[in-house]
Amino acid sequence: MDVNEKVLAALKSEGKPMRSGELVEQTGLDKKDVDKAIKNLKKDGVIDSPKRCYYALASEPTEE
Prior knowledge:
Blueprint: H1 3-14, E1 18-19, H2 20-27, H3 31-43, E2 47-48, E3 54-57
Helix pairs in contact: 2-3
């Protein structure tokens, strides 16, 4: 499991927005690795930031 997958798994298991420090504790990864994963996942649209310094899975657009 790579860093991005571990960050995503932690966000899924919590089910609520998390700070990067919480993700570090949950995953056991280095802070700079978590920050890099967050940056990549945000760029790809997989996660978003509902409020400053918190990260959550991006919500799926609803089909109408």
